[in-house]
Amino acid sequence: MKLSFSPEDEQFREEVATWLRENLTGEFEKLKYRGGPGDEHMFPEERLAWEQKLAQGGWTCVGWPAEHGGRGCSIEQQVIFFEEYARAGAPGRVGHIGEGLAGPTIIAFGTPEQKEKYLPGIVTGTELWCQGYSEPGAGSDLANVKTRAHFDEAKGKWIINGQKVWTSLAHESDYCFAIARTDPQSVAHKGLGFFLIRMDQPGIEVRPIEQITGTSEFNEVFFDEAECDAEDIVGAPGDGWKVAMGLLGFERGVSTLGQQMQFQNELDEVIRLAKSNGAANDPAIRQRIAAAHAELKIMRYNSMRMLSGQSGSDGLLQKEALIYKLFWATWHRSLGELAMDVMGPECEVLEGGPYALSRLQSMYLFVRSDTIYGGTNQIQRNIIAERGLGMPKEPRVAAK
Amino acid sequence: MEFAFTQEQEMIRDTAAAFLAEVSSSEAIRRAMATEQGYEPELWNRICGEMYWQAITIPEAYGGMGLGYVELVAMMEQMGRYLLCSPFFSTVCLASNALLLAGDEQQKTHWLGKLCEGDLTATLAFNGGHSGWSTDAVTATWHKDGDNYVLNGDYRYVIDGHTSSLLVVAAREEGSTGEEGISLFLLPADTAGLSCQWLPTMDQARKQATVQLCAVTLAGEALMGEAGACGPTLARILDLAAIALAAEQVGGSQKLLDMTVEYTSERVQFNRTIASFQAVKHKAADMMLKTEVARSAIYYAACVAQEVLEEGPMAAELAEAASVVKSYTSDTYFSVAGDSMQLFGGVGFTWEYDVHLYFKRAKSSEHLLGNGAAHRERLAALLLDN
């Protein structure tokens, strides 16, 4: 157990920092600290150009194996990359769903043809992805998917009908990976398929959802006789749940460290504000700022534990990984509240009309979603109790 | 960067767990805590003779095992889990660290050698009865009289002070404040003018004492380091001790969680185990979250502590790491203990069940070496007051 990095890794850190310093300039300057959660609707075209700039420098998919177009970085180097990226204030990645979720799934479960067809577009930053899991009737009960997929023999294609919801960046995306029911008689997690669906087609309609912030990162996606090529199902029909769950492991990877550096940027802003407006003299605020700092610091080392973990080889998430979503989401939500309390009465005042939120105001509102999406805090506690502590599963009520 | 135990470290942890499961049963704890001494000498002799734990962090040059803080933390976690009644914390995490950081070669060779032999137990006395645990808490005084040093003053909350054969005491030059003017001295328990008395405490499984120095006159060889310049060293000793104590807190939290899951999985009400109720599961999930986060914290702090001993690049982070970890583990242990007692229901309130032993330890360890609020205020000063 050792915290410090090797000289080679420190040299890599310098390389990353230098590249970012030299390239996050000019037309990209205005993207600094933008495009994070709650701000993902901002500068889509410029951020796509930035994604491609990163790709040219070889800084997309740094953790992917070289054979799939990645940089093949070690865990340590990935940690360093994500830290330096956030430290430089580089913008939220438009390609993160492809790089972090779609790509790793295709690498793990896809055919050689799927890899050849889809991975290069993710690596070059030219093709964006969105995730089609949740539905109006499948939120916490994610397996209750009603979207149907049937194979049309005449067309030789899968035909998709149904609706997805809370689909981030659907309006910017070229492809959607989605789970749909291939066996109409099936229930719950059986009988699902995992599909790679082209978004630009007549059978798909995207409608933005206006959120609490007044902005729209999330969308509804309607499938009305949408088509998916026969070879664009990952795994066999019926394997969809297995593939989708395999993907959840990727969401707890190295990229969590980049997210934490964004948290650090936000906390730094709260601290700057507290020092300038006198809130730093309030003993109650001091306690909360110190607690936020302490827990963020620990969050980093909890992630290091997740990444260095040895006990994950049995396919089960380690305990420190099981608690991670509940921990960071709750922490982040508290940070939003702290930010407003540091601002005091000024927290009400907007930057301008009709509804121009400051970064901290936007963060405060948006973090309310953190404890809901990707498994609510309540669902997380069920998972922790059942998988982490072996307590009894929730009783199943038979469908009516 | 490697943030997992090595195989050797895992073996040390597992060996400690297996040994403690055998020797620190509920019956053994209750036997030891009923005595004024607070531990059973036969067990301590086994720990020193068979396990050689008292020598874990002492360098091989002085006869020790030469292991590091990560190994110490792994072991403290197990001692907290099994609520071992022993002078380990006082001897190793307080006195031995003080010797390592402040002692001169002669003092180290002599006293660390004796510690390794298992012939003596030792502790650190510094707090004059303050709620604060920084160097401000030092109220005993020293002044020079010719070549000698004369010490006067009282100490409270001295862990195992009444049974230790060697005391490291902190005293300040009359009129000094904060980290200024502080010296550390080595006092054998039979030093003239030194008296130590057992201080009965709510947590009976770890004993405390009051120590009184009444015109104690010491030759120069009792002085550790430079006279009046040991304040920063004392601060580092206390931070290292806080990290070890935090590991004990995590072990205790884990034991409470394990006991609670086991009990609620057996206890049946309304024709189902109470562990099947979401209200119970969710509380247990929160207990696990806090315990795992606290565990990540102590491994981080252990690495920083190790760099202090090795004078590595992260050594400067010691104060911050100690406060990050001690604030989180203190709140965690007490909160987990309270939740555990609640989920045990009525039996958790009895003397017979072990929950109260951990509940009492949680409060004792929370306040020992600074509670959560105190450490957060220290962090706040680092973050906000510049």
How would you portray this structure in words?
The complex is a heterodimer of chains A (400) and B (386). Chain A has 3 domains: 7-94, Orthogonal Bundle (Butyryl-Coa Dehydrogenase, subunit A, domain 1), CATH 1.10.540; 129-238, Butyryl-CoA Dehydrogenase, subunit A, domain 2 (Beta Barrel), CATH 2.40.110.10; 253-388, Butyryl-CoA Dehydrogenase, subunit A, domain 3 (Up-down Bundle). In chain A, helix 10 packs across helix 11 (359-366). In chain A, a hairpin with a 4-residue loop joins strand 2 (148-152) and strand 3 (157-165). Chain A has helices spanning 7-23, 44-56, 75-87, 96-109, 112-123, 240-248, 255-277, 283-308, 319-322, 324-343, 359-366, 377-388; strands at residues 129-132, 148-152, 157-165, 175-181, 192-198, 204-208, 219-229, 233-234. Chain A has 400 residues and is an alpha+beta fold. Chain B folds into 3 domains: 7-121, Butyryl-Coa Dehydrogenase, subunit A, domain 1 (Orthogonal Bundle), CATH 1.10.540; 123-224, Butyryl-CoA Dehydrogenase, subunit A, domain 2, CATH 2.40.110; 231-384, Up-down Bundle (Butyryl-CoA Dehydrogenase, subunit A, domain 3), CATH 1.20.140. Helix content of chain B is 52%, strand content 15%. Chain B has 11 helices and 10 strands. In chain B, the strands form 2 sheets. In chain B, strands 1, 2, 3, 4, 5, 6, 7 and 8 form an 8-stranded mixed beta sheet that branches. In chain B, strands 9-10 form a two-stranded antiparallel ribbon. Chain B is globular, with a radius of gyration of 21 Å. The chains are: A alpha+beta (400), B alpha+beta (386). Chains A and B meet through helix 7, helix 8, helix 9 and helix 12 of A and helix 7, strand 10, helix 8, helix 9 and helix 11 of B.
Topology:
The complex is a heterodimer of chains A (400) and B (386).
Chain A: H1 7-23, H2 44-56, H3 75-87, H4 96-109, H5 112-123, E1 129-132, E2 148-152, E3 157-165, E4 175-181, E5 192-198, E6 204-208, E7 219-229, E8 233-234, H6 240-248, H7 255-277, H8 283-308, H9 319-322, H10 324-343, H11 359-366, H12 377-388
Parallel strand pairs in A: 1-4
Antiparallel strand pairs in A: 2-3, 3-7, 4-5, 5-8, 6-7
Helix pairs in contact in A: 1-3, 3-7, 4-5, 4-6, 7-8, 7-10, 8-10, 10-11
Chain B: H1 7-23, H2 26-33, H3 41-51, H4 69-81, H5 88-102, H6 105-117, E1 122-125, E2 141-145, E3 148-159, E4 166-173, E5 182-188, E6 194-199, E7 208-218, E8 223-224, H7 231-266, E9 268-269, E10 272-273, H8 278-310, H9 318-344, H10 355-367, H11 372-384
Parallel strand pairs in B: 1-4, 2-4
Antiparallel strand pairs in B: 2-3, 3-7, 4-5, 5-8, 6-7, 9-10
Helix pairs in contact in B: 1-4, 4-7, 4-8, 5-6, 5-7, 7-8, 7-9, 7-10, 8-9, 9-10, 9-11
